[in-house]
Task: structure prediction
Amino acid sequence: MLMADHEMKTTAPDTGLRIKTEIKVQDPSAAVPAGGAPDIVCRNVNLSYGDNQVLHDVTMDMEDRRVTALIGPSGCGKSTLLRCLNRMNDLIDNVRVWGEIRVKGLDINSPTTDVIEVRRRVGMVFQKSNPFPKSIYENVVYGLRIAGINDKATLDEACERSLRGAALWDEVKDRLGESGLGLSGGQMQRLCIARAIAVEPEIILMDEPCSALDPIATLKIEELMYQLKEKYTIVIVTHNLQQAARVSDKTAFFWLGRLVEFGPTAEMFTAPRDKLTEDYITGRFG
Amino acid sequence: MERHHFEAELQNLRNQLLTMGGMVEERVHRAVHALVHRSEEDAKRIIASDKEINDLQMDVDNRCLKLLATQAPLAVDLRLITSAMKINADLERIGDQAVNVAESVLVLIPQPPLKPLIDIPRMAGIAEKMIRDALDAFVKRDAELARDVLRRDDEVDELKDQVFRELLTYMMADPGTIQRALSLILISRNLERIADHATNIAEDVIFIAEAKDVRHNVQVDKP
Result:
Protein backbone atom coordinates (compact mmCIF):
# COMPACT_ATOMS: atom_id res chain seq x y z
CA MET A 1 0.00 0.00 0.00
CA LEU A 2 2.63 2.43 1.08
CA MET A 3 4.81 1.60 -1.89
CA ALA A 4 1.91 2.02 -4.25
CA ASP A 5 1.48 5.54 -3.02
CA HIS A 6 5.04 6.33 -3.97
CA GLU A 7 4.90 4.93 -7.43
CA MET A 8 3.51 7.03 -10.18
CA LYS A 9 2.96 5.48 -13.52
CA THR A 10 2.88 7.87 -16.39
CA THR A 11 2.29 7.05 -19.97
CA ALA A 12 3.67 9.20 -22.72
CA PRO A 13 1.04 11.02 -24.77
CA ASP A 14 -0.11 8.93 -27.69
CA THR A 15 2.27 9.90 -30.44
CA GLY A 16 1.84 6.66 -32.31
CA LEU A 17 5.07 5.43 -30.81
CA ARG A 18 4.76 2.26 -28.83
CA ILE A 19 6.88 3.49 -26.02
CA LYS A 20 5.69 3.57 -22.49
CA THR A 21 7.64 5.33 -19.87
CA GLU A 22 7.32 4.37 -16.28
CA ILE A 23 8.61 6.88 -13.84
CA LYS A 24 9.28 5.82 -10.32
CA VAL A 25 9.46 8.72 -7.97
CA GLN A 26 12.75 8.32 -6.18
CA ASP A 27 12.08 10.50 -3.21
CA PRO A 28 9.09 9.22 -1.22
CA SER A 29 8.51 12.67 0.23
CA ALA A 30 8.04 14.03 -3.28
CA ALA A 31 4.82 12.06 -3.64
CA VAL A 32 2.15 12.25 -1.02
CA PRO A 33 2.93 9.39 1.34
CA ALA A 34 0.54 7.95 3.84
CA GLY A 35 1.47 8.87 7.36
CA GLY A 36 4.48 10.84 8.47
CA ALA A 37 2.68 13.34 10.68
CA PRO A 38 3.84 13.47 14.29
CA ASP A 39 1.90 10.75 16.06
CA ILE A 40 3.69 10.50 19.37
CA VAL A 41 5.05 13.78 20.62
CA CYS A 42 7.60 13.75 23.45
CA ARG A 43 8.55 17.10 24.93
CA ASN A 44 11.24 17.32 27.59
CA VAL A 45 10.45 13.89 28.95
CA ASN A 46 12.29 13.09 32.16
CA LEU A 47 12.06 10.02 34.33
CA SER A 48 13.62 9.03 37.61
CA TYR A 49 13.58 5.89 39.70
CA GLY A 50 13.85 7.39 43.19
CA ASP A 51 16.91 9.64 43.11
CA ASN A 52 18.24 8.04 39.98
CA GLN A 53 17.28 10.05 36.91
CA VAL A 54 17.40 7.83 33.85
CA LEU A 55 15.83 10.03 31.17
CA HIS A 56 16.85 13.63 30.62
CA ASP A 57 14.81 16.06 28.57
CA VAL A 58 13.96 13.74 25.71
CA THR A 59 12.23 15.65 22.94
CA MET A 60 11.28 13.81 19.78
CA ASP A 61 8.33 12.95 17.54
CA MET A 62 7.48 9.46 16.35
CA GLU A 63 5.73 9.68 13.02
CA ASP A 64 2.44 8.20 11.94
CA ARG A 65 2.76 4.84 10.12
CA ARG A 66 6.52 4.87 10.29
CA VAL A 67 8.93 2.67 12.19
CA THR A 68 11.04 4.53 14.71
CA ALA A 69 13.98 2.60 16.14
CA LEU A 70 15.49 3.41 19.51
CA ILE A 71 19.10 2.29 19.81
CA GLY A 72 21.90 2.68 22.32
CA PRO A 73 23.96 0.71 24.81
CA SER A 74 22.34 -1.09 27.73
CA GLY A 75 21.13 1.33 30.35
CA CYS A 76 20.87 4.25 27.93
CA GLY A 77 17.16 4.72 28.64
CA LYS A 78 15.71 3.50 25.36
CA SER A 79 13.49 0.80 26.90
CA THR A 80 12.50 3.16 29.68
CA LEU A 81 11.34 5.70 27.12
CA LEU A 82 9.45 2.98 25.24
CA ARG A 83 7.65 1.98 28.43
CA CYS A 84 6.72 5.61 29.04
CA LEU A 85 4.73 5.58 25.84
CA ASN A 86 2.03 3.31 27.24
CA ARG A 87 2.66 4.05 30.90
CA MET A 88 4.14 0.67 31.65
CA ASN A 89 6.47 2.39 34.09
CA ASP A 90 3.46 3.03 36.33
CA LEU A 91 3.90 -0.54 37.50
CA ILE A 92 7.28 0.27 39.06
CA ASP A 93 7.56 1.87 42.51
CA ASN A 94 9.19 5.26 42.99
CA VAL A 95 8.90 6.23 39.36
CA ARG A 96 8.43 9.86 38.55
CA VAL A 97 7.84 11.07 35.01
CA TRP A 98 7.70 14.69 34.02
CA GLY A 99 7.54 16.47 30.72
CA GLU A 100 4.87 15.89 28.11
CA ILE A 101 3.94 12.84 26.06
CA ARG A 102 1.06 13.12 23.65
CA VAL A 103 -0.26 10.18 21.68
CA LYS A 104 -2.41 11.44 18.83
CA GLY A 105 -2.96 14.56 20.84
CA LEU A 106 -3.87 12.76 24.06
CA ASP A 107 -1.77 13.79 27.07
CA ILE A 108 -1.19 10.26 28.36
CA ASN A 109 0.15 11.33 31.76
CA SER A 110 -2.77 13.61 32.55
CA PRO A 111 -4.63 12.56 35.75
CA THR A 112 -7.84 12.47 33.74
CA THR A 113 -6.46 10.04 31.17
CA ASP A 114 -7.61 6.45 31.53
CA VAL A 115 -4.49 4.27 31.56
CA ILE A 116 -6.43 1.25 30.29
CA GLU A 117 -7.47 3.31 27.28
CA VAL A 118 -3.84 4.36 26.73
CA ARG A 119 -2.71 0.74 26.71
CA ARG A 120 -5.48 -0.26 24.34
CA ARG A 121 -4.40 2.39 21.90
CA VAL A 122 -0.71 1.69 22.42
CA GLY A 123 -0.05 -2.03 22.18
CA MET A 124 3.17 -3.68 23.21
CA VAL A 125 5.23 -6.70 22.21
CA PHE A 126 7.97 -7.86 24.52
CA GLN A 127 11.42 -9.38 24.18
CA LYS A 128 10.27 -12.75 25.40
CA SER A 129 7.03 -13.88 23.85
CA ASN A 130 4.47 -14.36 26.56
CA PRO A 131 1.42 -16.22 25.30
CA PHE A 132 -1.14 -17.17 27.93
CA PRO A 133 -1.56 -20.86 28.71
CA LYS A 134 -4.67 -20.88 26.59
CA SER A 135 -5.61 -21.86 23.07
CA ILE A 136 -4.30 -19.89 20.12
CA TYR A 137 -7.81 -18.55 19.59
CA GLU A 138 -8.25 -17.42 23.18
CA ASN A 139 -4.83 -15.81 23.20
CA VAL A 140 -5.79 -13.63 20.26
CA VAL A 141 -9.21 -12.58 21.49
CA TYR A 142 -8.15 -12.16 25.11
CA GLY A 143 -8.17 -8.38 25.00
CA LEU A 144 -11.59 -8.32 23.40
CA ARG A 145 -13.05 -10.64 26.03
CA ILE A 146 -11.58 -8.41 28.75
CA ALA A 147 -13.35 -5.53 27.06
CA GLY A 148 -16.59 -7.48 27.41
CA ILE A 149 -16.96 -8.68 23.84
CA ASN A 150 -18.23 -12.25 23.70
CA ASP A 151 -20.11 -12.37 20.42
CA LYS A 152 -18.71 -15.38 18.61
CA ALA A 153 -18.93 -13.94 15.11
CA THR A 154 -17.13 -10.78 16.22
CA LEU A 155 -14.44 -12.77 17.99
CA ASP A 156 -14.00 -15.15 15.04
CA GLU A 157 -13.62 -12.25 12.70
CA ALA A 158 -11.15 -10.49 14.98
CA CYS A 159 -9.16 -13.68 15.45
CA GLU A 160 -8.75 -14.30 11.74
CA ARG A 161 -8.05 -10.66 10.96
CA SER A 162 -5.41 -10.43 13.68
CA LEU A 163 -3.71 -13.70 12.82
CA ARG A 164 -3.63 -12.69 9.18
CA GLY A 165 -2.26 -9.32 10.20
CA ALA A 166 0.47 -11.06 12.15
CA ALA A 167 1.25 -13.36 9.19
CA LEU A 168 0.39 -16.40 11.27
CA TRP A 169 -3.05 -17.38 9.98
CA ASP A 170 -1.92 -19.85 7.34
CA GLU A 171 0.26 -21.67 9.84
CA VAL A 172 -2.35 -22.07 12.59
CA LYS A 173 -5.79 -21.82 10.99
CA ASP A 174 -6.40 -25.56 11.36
CA ARG A 175 -5.42 -25.72 15.01
CA LEU A 176 -6.84 -22.63 16.65
CA GLY A 177 -7.96 -24.72 19.63
CA GLU A 178 -4.45 -25.92 20.43
CA SER A 179 -2.37 -24.32 23.14
CA GLY A 180 -0.46 -21.19 22.23
CA LEU A 181 2.46 -22.58 24.16
CA GLY A 182 2.89 -25.35 21.58
CA LEU A 183 4.04 -22.96 18.88
CA SER A 184 7.63 -22.28 17.88
CA GLY A 185 9.40 -19.23 19.32
CA GLY A 186 8.84 -17.17 16.19
CA GLN A 187 5.20 -18.24 15.97
CA MET A 188 4.64 -17.39 19.64
CA GLN A 189 6.05 -13.93 19.03
CA ARG A 190 3.73 -13.46 16.06
CA LEU A 191 0.87 -14.74 18.23
CA CYS A 192 1.70 -11.97 20.69
CA ILE A 193 1.65 -9.49 17.83
CA ALA A 194 -1.74 -10.85 16.76
CA ARG A 195 -2.98 -10.43 20.35
CA ALA A 196 -1.66 -6.87 20.37
CA ILE A 197 -3.40 -5.89 17.12
CA ALA A 198 -6.67 -7.68 17.97
CA VAL A 199 -7.76 -4.72 20.09
CA GLU A 200 -7.04 -2.40 17.15
CA PRO A 201 -4.36 -0.21 18.66
CA GLU A 202 -2.96 2.78 16.81
CA ILE A 203 0.59 2.29 17.94
CA ILE A 204 2.67 -0.82 18.52
CA LEU A 205 5.67 -0.73 20.81
CA MET A 206 8.22 -3.48 20.38
CA ASP A 207 10.88 -4.11 22.97
CA GLU A 208 13.58 -6.21 21.33
CA PRO A 209 10.97 -8.42 19.68
CA CYS A 210 13.49 -10.63 17.90
CA SER A 211 16.30 -11.01 20.40
CA ALA A 212 15.18 -14.53 21.32
CA LEU A 213 14.50 -15.64 17.75
CA ASP A 214 16.59 -17.38 15.11
CA PRO A 215 17.44 -15.47 11.90
CA ILE A 216 14.55 -16.94 9.88
CA ALA A 217 11.95 -16.14 12.54
CA THR A 218 13.56 -12.71 12.87
CA LEU A 219 13.21 -12.03 9.17
CA LYS A 220 9.55 -13.05 9.34
CA ILE A 221 8.91 -10.53 12.10
CA GLU A 222 10.80 -7.89 10.14
CA GLU A 223 8.75 -8.63 7.02
CA LEU A 224 5.67 -8.37 9.18
CA MET A 225 6.78 -4.97 10.39
CA TYR A 226 6.86 -3.69 6.81
CA GLN A 227 3.21 -4.73 6.51
CA LEU A 228 2.19 -3.51 9.94
CA LYS A 229 3.47 -0.01 9.35
CA GLU A 230 0.89 0.47 6.64
CA LYS A 231 -1.63 0.63 9.46
CA TYR A 232 0.27 1.25 12.65
CA THR A 233 2.90 3.52 14.04
CA ILE A 234 5.71 1.33 15.33
CA VAL A 235 8.38 2.12 17.88
CA ILE A 236 11.02 -0.56 18.30
CA VAL A 237 13.85 -0.93 20.77
CA THR A 238 16.60 -3.10 19.37
CA HIS A 239 20.19 -3.97 20.15
CA ASN A 240 20.58 -5.29 16.65
CA LEU A 241 21.82 -2.35 14.61
CA GLN A 242 21.34 -4.17 11.35
CA GLN A 243 17.74 -4.74 12.31
CA ALA A 244 17.26 -1.06 13.04
CA ALA A 245 18.88 -0.30 9.69
CA ARG A 246 16.60 -2.75 7.89
CA VAL A 247 13.23 -2.00 9.40
CA SER A 248 13.14 1.57 10.61
CA ASP A 249 12.47 4.84 8.88
CA LYS A 250 14.01 6.93 11.60
CA THR A 251 16.51 6.03 14.25
CA ALA A 252 17.14 7.64 17.62
CA PHE A 253 20.42 7.07 19.42
CA PHE A 254 20.38 7.31 23.22
CA TRP A 255 23.29 7.56 25.57
CA LEU A 256 23.19 7.94 29.35
CA GLY A 257 19.50 8.78 29.29
CA ARG A 258 19.82 11.48 26.68
CA LEU A 259 18.77 11.58 23.06
CA VAL A 260 22.04 12.16 21.22
CA GLU A 261 20.93 12.02 17.62
CA PHE A 262 17.67 11.41 15.82
CA GLY A 263 17.31 11.29 12.07
CA PRO A 264 16.43 9.33 8.95
CA THR A 265 17.79 5.81 9.35
CA ALA A 266 19.79 5.76 6.12
CA GLU A 267 21.54 8.92 7.21
CA MET A 268 22.20 7.68 10.74
CA PHE A 269 23.87 4.54 9.44
CA THR A 270 25.89 6.03 6.60
CA ALA A 271 26.69 9.52 7.81
CA PRO A 272 25.85 10.15 11.45
CA ARG A 273 26.45 13.71 12.54
CA ASP A 274 27.45 13.07 16.11
CA LYS A 275 30.77 11.53 17.08
CA LEU A 276 29.09 9.48 19.84
CA THR A 277 26.65 7.99 17.35
CA GLU A 278 29.46 7.25 14.95
CA ASP A 279 31.49 5.53 17.66
CA TYR A 280 28.52 3.49 18.82
CA ILE A 281 27.35 2.21 15.47
CA THR A 282 30.87 1.45 14.25
CA GLY A 283 31.56 -0.46 17.44
CA ARG A 284 34.26 1.87 18.74
CA PHE A 285 32.45 2.83 21.89
CA GLY A 286 33.98 3.59 25.24
CA MET B 1 35.04 -1.56 23.16
CA GLU B 2 37.64 -1.82 20.40
CA ARG B 3 37.38 -3.84 17.25
CA HIS B 4 41.04 -4.80 16.90
CA HIS B 5 40.49 -7.46 14.30
CA PHE B 6 38.30 -5.25 12.17
CA GLU B 7 40.66 -2.30 12.54
CA ALA B 8 43.54 -4.49 11.42
CA GLU B 9 41.55 -5.60 8.39
CA LEU B 10 40.74 -2.01 7.47
CA GLN B 11 44.40 -1.11 7.82
CA ASN B 12 45.35 -4.00 5.55
CA LEU B 13 42.86 -2.75 3.02
CA ARG B 14 44.28 0.78 3.14
CA ASN B 15 47.82 -0.56 2.83
CA GLN B 16 46.93 -2.68 -0.12
CA LEU B 17 45.36 0.23 -1.97
CA LEU B 18 48.45 2.28 -1.20
CA THR B 19 50.70 -0.42 -2.57
CA MET B 20 48.57 -0.64 -5.67
CA GLY B 21 48.58 3.15 -6.01
CA GLY B 22 52.37 3.22 -5.79
CA MET B 23 52.60 0.52 -8.44
CA VAL B 24 50.32 2.23 -10.96
CA GLU B 25 51.91 5.63 -10.35
CA GLU B 26 55.29 4.12 -11.09
CA ARG B 27 53.97 2.53 -14.28
CA VAL B 28 52.65 5.87 -15.50
CA HIS B 29 56.03 7.40 -14.75
CA ARG B 30 57.94 4.65 -16.51
CA ALA B 31 55.66 4.66 -19.52
CA VAL B 32 56.29 8.35 -20.15
CA HIS B 33 59.97 7.82 -19.37
CA ALA B 34 60.00 5.10 -22.01
CA LEU B 35 58.40 7.55 -24.43
CA VAL B 36 60.94 10.30 -23.81
CA HIS B 37 63.95 7.98 -23.74
CA ARG B 38 62.64 5.67 -26.46
CA SER B 39 63.06 2.59 -24.32
CA GLU B 40 61.39 -0.42 -25.87
CA GLU B 41 62.42 -2.62 -22.97
CA ASP B 42 60.66 -0.41 -20.38
CA ALA B 43 57.51 -0.25 -22.48
CA LYS B 44 57.41 -4.00 -22.89
CA ARG B 45 57.95 -4.55 -19.20
CA ILE B 46 54.96 -2.34 -18.36
CA ILE B 47 52.75 -4.28 -20.75
CA ALA B 48 53.94 -7.63 -19.42
CA SER B 49 53.45 -6.75 -15.76
CA ASP B 50 49.83 -5.58 -15.93
CA LYS B 51 48.72 -8.88 -14.45
CA GLU B 52 50.23 -7.89 -11.09
CA ILE B 53 47.81 -4.97 -10.92
CA ASN B 54 44.88 -7.08 -12.08
CA ASP B 55 45.59 -9.67 -9.39
CA LEU B 56 45.76 -6.99 -6.74
CA GLN B 57 42.46 -5.56 -7.93
CA MET B 58 40.70 -8.88 -7.51
CA ASP B 59 42.28 -9.39 -4.11
CA VAL B 60 41.14 -5.96 -2.89
CA ASP B 61 37.60 -6.58 -4.11
CA ASN B 62 37.55 -9.91 -2.31
CA ARG B 63 38.70 -8.30 0.90
CA CYS B 64 36.00 -5.64 0.63
CA LEU B 65 33.27 -8.18 -0.08
CA LYS B 66 34.38 -10.27 2.86
CA LEU B 67 34.35 -7.27 5.18
CA LEU B 68 30.89 -6.23 3.97
CA ALA B 69 29.57 -9.75 4.48
CA THR B 70 31.14 -10.50 7.81
CA GLN B 71 31.54 -7.18 9.63
CA ALA B 72 28.34 -5.36 8.66
CA PRO B 73 30.23 -2.05 8.51
CA LEU B 74 28.35 1.17 9.14
CA ALA B 75 28.90 4.92 8.92
CA VAL B 76 32.51 5.84 8.12
CA ASP B 77 33.49 2.17 7.84
CA LEU B 78 30.76 1.58 5.30
CA ARG B 79 31.84 4.65 3.34
CA LEU B 80 35.45 3.51 3.49
CA ILE B 81 34.83 0.00 2.23
CA THR B 82 32.40 0.88 -0.55
CA SER B 83 34.74 3.68 -1.66
CA ALA B 84 37.73 1.35 -1.50
CA MET B 85 36.03 -0.82 -4.11
CA LYS B 86 35.65 2.19 -6.38
CA ILE B 87 39.19 3.44 -5.77
CA ASN B 88 40.37 -0.07 -6.53
CA ALA B 89 38.66 0.04 -9.93
CA ASP B 90 40.13 3.47 -10.67
CA LEU B 91 43.64 2.31 -9.81
CA GLU B 92 43.32 -0.71 -12.04
CA ARG B 93 42.17 1.52 -14.90
CA ILE B 94 45.17 3.77 -14.35
CA GLY B 95 47.32 0.67 -14.73
CA ASP B 96 45.53 -0.11 -18.00
CA GLN B 97 46.10 3.42 -19.26
CA ALA B 98 49.82 3.07 -18.51
CA VAL B 99 49.76 -0.07 -20.65
CA ASN B 100 48.04 1.90 -23.42
CA VAL B 101 50.74 4.54 -23.28
CA ALA B 102 53.41 1.82 -23.44
CA GLU B 103 51.75 0.31 -26.49
CA SER B 104 51.77 3.66 -28.28
CA VAL B 105 55.43 4.04 -27.31
CA LEU B 106 56.18 0.77 -29.10
CA VAL B 107 54.50 2.18 -32.21
CA LEU B 108 56.54 5.38 -32.02
CA ILE B 109 60.02 4.01 -31.29
CA PRO B 110 60.82 2.65 -34.79
CA GLN B 111 60.05 6.05 -36.31
CA PRO B 112 62.03 9.29 -36.04
CA PRO B 113 60.88 11.70 -33.32
CA LEU B 114 58.14 14.04 -34.51
CA LYS B 115 58.93 16.88 -32.16
CA PRO B 116 60.50 17.57 -28.78
CA LEU B 117 58.21 16.34 -25.99
CA ILE B 118 57.32 19.03 -23.49
CA ASP B 119 53.61 19.08 -22.71
CA ILE B 120 53.16 15.31 -22.46
CA PRO B 121 55.82 14.85 -19.74
CA ARG B 122 54.32 17.83 -17.96
CA MET B 123 50.85 16.23 -18.09
CA ALA B 124 52.31 13.01 -16.77
CA GLY B 125 54.01 14.85 -13.92
CA ILE B 126 50.76 16.48 -12.85
CA ALA B 127 48.76 13.26 -13.21
CA GLU B 128 51.29 11.27 -11.17
CA LYS B 129 51.21 13.87 -8.41
CA MET B 130 47.41 13.76 -8.49
CA ILE B 131 47.45 10.00 -7.95
CA ARG B 132 49.97 10.32 -5.14
CA ASP B 133 48.09 13.13 -3.40
CA ALA B 134 44.70 11.46 -3.82
CA LEU B 135 46.05 8.37 -2.07
CA ASP B 136 47.80 10.45 0.52
CA ALA B 137 44.48 12.18 1.18
CA PHE B 138 42.83 8.76 1.36
CA VAL B 139 45.22 7.57 4.05
CA LYS B 140 44.98 10.76 6.07
CA ARG B 141 41.26 11.26 5.37
CA ASP B 142 42.28 14.73 4.23
CA ALA B 143 39.37 16.28 2.32
CA GLU B 144 41.27 19.52 1.71
CA LEU B 145 44.11 17.78 -0.08
CA ALA B 146 41.50 15.83 -2.06
CA ARG B 147 39.84 19.09 -3.12
CA ASP B 148 43.23 20.36 -4.24
CA VAL B 149 43.55 17.28 -6.45
CA LEU B 150 40.17 18.05 -8.02
CA ARG B 151 41.31 21.53 -8.97
CA ARG B 152 44.38 20.20 -10.79
CA ASP B 153 42.31 18.15 -13.21
CA ASP B 154 41.60 21.30 -15.25
CA GLU B 155 45.31 21.87 -15.85
CA VAL B 156 45.66 18.42 -17.34
CA ASP B 157 42.60 18.94 -19.53
CA GLU B 158 44.03 22.21 -20.84
CA LEU B 159 47.38 20.60 -21.61
CA LYS B 160 45.60 17.83 -23.48
CA ASP B 161 43.73 20.38 -25.61
CA GLN B 162 46.99 22.14 -26.29
CA VAL B 163 48.66 18.90 -27.40
CA PHE B 164 45.70 18.14 -29.66
CA ARG B 165 45.85 21.56 -31.28
CA GLU B 166 49.56 21.44 -31.85
CA LEU B 167 49.58 17.96 -33.33
CA LEU B 168 46.70 18.87 -35.59
CA THR B 169 48.88 21.51 -37.23
CA TYR B 170 51.60 18.89 -37.81
CA MET B 171 49.12 16.55 -39.44
CA MET B 172 47.68 19.25 -41.67
CA ALA B 173 51.13 20.35 -42.78
CA ASP B 174 52.40 16.86 -43.51
CA PRO B 175 50.18 13.78 -43.73
CA GLY B 176 53.34 11.69 -43.28
CA THR B 177 53.22 12.65 -39.59
CA ILE B 178 49.71 11.38 -39.03
CA GLN B 179 50.60 8.02 -37.52
CA ARG B 180 53.09 9.50 -35.05
CA ALA B 181 50.83 12.44 -34.22
CA LEU B 182 47.91 10.10 -33.58
CA SER B 183 50.02 8.01 -31.22
CA LEU B 184 50.96 11.11 -29.29
CA ILE B 185 47.34 12.24 -29.24
CA LEU B 186 46.34 8.86 -27.84
CA ILE B 187 49.02 9.15 -25.19
CA SER B 188 47.85 12.59 -24.11
CA ARG B 189 44.33 11.22 -24.02
CA ASN B 190 45.51 8.32 -21.82
CA LEU B 191 47.19 10.75 -19.45
CA GLU B 192 44.09 12.90 -19.30
CA ARG B 193 42.05 9.81 -18.39
CA ILE B 194 44.58 8.95 -15.70
CA ALA B 195 44.04 12.38 -14.17
CA ASP B 196 40.29 11.72 -14.33
CA HIS B 197 40.74 8.51 -12.36
CA ALA B 198 42.81 10.38 -9.78
CA THR B 199 39.95 12.89 -9.62
CA ASN B 200 37.49 10.08 -8.96
CA ILE B 201 39.66 8.84 -6.13
CA ALA B 202 39.80 12.33 -4.63
CA GLU B 203 35.99 12.54 -4.81
CA ASP B 204 35.74 9.22 -2.98
CA VAL B 205 38.10 10.54 -0.30
CA ILE B 206 35.80 13.52 0.28
CA PHE B 207 32.88 11.10 0.58
CA ILE B 208 34.74 9.01 3.13
CA ALA B 209 35.88 12.00 5.14
CA GLU B 210 32.81 14.19 5.03
CA ALA B 211 29.94 12.01 3.76
CA LYS B 212 29.50 14.50 0.92
CA ASP B 213 29.00 13.42 -2.65
CA VAL B 214 30.86 15.95 -4.80
CA ARG B 215 30.73 14.03 -8.06
CA HIS B 216 29.42 15.66 -11.22
CA ASN B 217 29.90 19.08 -9.68
CA VAL B 218 27.00 18.68 -7.33
CA GLN B 219 27.86 19.44 -3.74
CA VAL B 220 25.26 17.78 -1.59
CA ASP B 221 25.26 16.15 1.79
CA LYS B 222 24.71 12.42 1.82
CA PRO B 223 22.28 10.79 1.74
Summary: Residues 1-26, 28-32 of chain A have pLDDT under 50 and may be disordered. Strands of chain A lie at 38-49, 52-63, 67-71, 95-103, 106-107, 122-125, 203-207, 233-237, 250-255, 258-264.
